[in-house]
Design goal:
Blueprint: H1 4-9, E1 17-19, E2 40-42, E3 63-65, E4 86-88, E5 108-110, E6 131-133, E7 154-156, E8 177-179, E9 190-193, E10 198-201, E11 211-212, E12 217-225, E13 229-236, E14 249-255, H2 265-275, E15 284-290, E16 293-299, E17 305-307, H3 330-349, E18 352-353, E19 362-365, E20 375-377, E21 384-385, H4 391-413, H5 423-440, H6 450-471
Parallel strand pairs: 1-2, 2-3, 3-4, 4-5, 5-6, 6-7, 7-8, 11-15
Antiparallel strand pairs: 9-10, 12-13, 13-14, 14-16, 15-16, 17-19, 18-21, 19-20
Helix pairs in contact: 3-4, 3-6, 4-5, 5-6
């Protein structure tokens, strides 16, 4: 982070990035002296409520962050920046977004935690829009023109005031990560049942998870933190009777309580419980609601597990990244893919969409790469209750998540451990590419279901095992 003094003294001449957080109430016009070089401007955590009329002279600006300020409307002058493509106004008091107030080449728009009641029809002109964060507003509808946003891949619509969602949203050709929890969606409690290929009424499918008091737990070191909460290594002081004989060492996630980029923490907790148990889901063993403090008690993940990937970058936008040198064998890709497909089939059968199917939300056990416990999947912050959607939308949600799976498979295939040279390996690699492409095709009804994906990967597992046996 730089200082205002450095800016005013000319020390930052030629800078491509500028971050100032000094309780600013007026836009420092000295920033314009960086117009020929500045690409990233972060003025978050100040007291700004407007931008100057000549803001568009920042002709090289690509990324703008103005979170935690005092804007009540989105400043239309940002539309004059010829290269601006990532815009963040999280946690302001924005009520309105005027027509044509956004650059038409906007790629990533963050308006989380504001007071927006409606969006302009010009949203449909954002032909490059890939990532849209609108959780924590007062929206009741989306403009129908947004059906033209064919590049949209990730949308966070949680914690608004929607009573229904448009059908066109569920047919966008590239949509892969969608969160809609925390809305008053008014529909019958129904879900699509793969096994019967029909819509059937349903009730809660997970078994009851017991309540415990936070005072029964000793919190240890922090081992993780996300938008919705903090995860601690912990130990039972008073272990519940139903867990006697189980390990005293546990993990505890305490929710922060405020709206996040994904939605409300209370919805995350509810959807996590509704998901039920599966060998590849991080196991929840109790829930906490202690004086308003919500939390989850989970199995402590063994140290042999590590994240499969890293979150998207400002450059990749919606696609995960991987540490330099990451390599996967075809056998590992197939095994991880099959377990992920089985997990997603289980979730959708229980009326839950995950909304965040990514490598960075997947844990990989490097000690058991060829076994059923290779992966653990978690983080239900963007999950949605499919029981609240009409049956056709709930069914389409699976196709949306199948595309996310295709992206995951594609990302892993780009990290193959060695050049695929032998004819047999090349054939398996090509089949995986074909499966990934089938998952990502633009026609949703033509995408495979998760049970079909699982079957295809199981068949590939047999092929890989057969090749291994021949080699022996």
């Amino acid at each position: 982070m730089q200082t205002l003094e450095q800016l005013k003294s000319g020390q930052l001449k030629g800078a491509t990035r500028l971050q100032l957080a000094e309780n600013l109430s007026l836009f420092p016009t000295e920033i314009f002296e960086l117009a020929d070089s500045l690409e990233v401007l972060d003025l978050s955590n100040n007291q700004l409520d407007s931008l100057p009329d000549d803001f568009g002279c920042l002709k090289e600006l690509k990324i703008l962050f103005l979170s935690n300020n005092h804007f009540t409307q989105l400043p239309g002058v940002i539309a004059n920046c010829p290269k601006l493509e990532m815009i963040g106004f999280k946690a302001n008091q924005i009520v309105s977004v005027a027509e044509n107030s956004l650059p038409k080449h906007t790629r990533w728009l963050i308006l989380t935690d504001n007071k927006i009641t409606h969006l302009p029809n010009s949203m449909g002109d954002l032909y490059r829009l890939q990532k849209l964060a609108l959780a924590g507003n007062c929206l009741t509808a989306l403009p129908d023109t947004m059906a033209n946003c064919h590049s949209l891949e990730l949308a966070r619509l949680s914690a608004n005031q929607f009573t229904s969602l448009p059908d066109w949203l569920f047919q966008l050709p590239k949509l892969s990560w969608l969160a809609v929890s925390g809305n008053t969606l008014a529909t019958q409690d129904r879900r699509f049942d793969d096994s019967q290929s029909e819509c059937v009424s349903t009730t809660q499918t997970n078994k009851s998870v017991g309540h415990v008091n936070l005072s029964d737990i000793e919190l240890g070191e922090q081992i993780g933190e996300g938008a919705s909460g903090v995860i601690y290594r912990a130990r039972w002081l008073v272990q519940p009777k139903w867990l006697l004989g189980e390990s005293l060492d546990i993990a505890v996630k305490l929710f922060k309580g405020e709206v996040t980029s994904d939605g409300y923490p209370s919805d995350e907790l509810a959807n996590c419980l509704q998901a039920g148990e599966h060998q590849n889901l991080i196991k929840v063993i109790a829930q906490i609601d202690d004086g308003g403090q919500l939390g989850l008690v989970m199995d402590l993940i063994p140290s042999t597990f590590s994240n499969l990937g890293l979150p998207p970058s400002l450059i990749t936008c919606t696609r995960d990244t991987f540490p330099a040198g990451t390599e996967f064998s075809l056998a590992t890709i197939i095994n991880v893919g099959k377990q992920m497909a089985d997990s997603m089939k289980h979730l959708h059968h229980n009326g839950v969409s995950h909304g965040d199917l990514y490598a960075h939300n997947t844990m990989l056990n490097t000690a058991t790469l060829s076994k059923s416990g290779t992966t653990l999947f978690g983080d239900f912050g963007a999950a949605s209750n499919l029981h609240l959607l009409p049956s056709l939308q709930a069914e389409a949600m699976e196709s949306i998540e199948v595309r996310a799976f295709g992206c995951l498979l594609d990302d892993m295939l780009n990290q193959v451990s060695q050049q695929v040279s032998c004819i047999a390996d090349k054939a398996i690699f090509d089949e995986l590419i074909e499966l990934s492409q089938a998952c990502m095709q633009t026609q949703l009804p033509m995408r495979p279901r998760f049970n079909e994906i699982g079957s295809a990967l199981k068949a590939l597992q047999y092929k890989v095992q057969g090749l291994a046996d021949v080699a022996i």
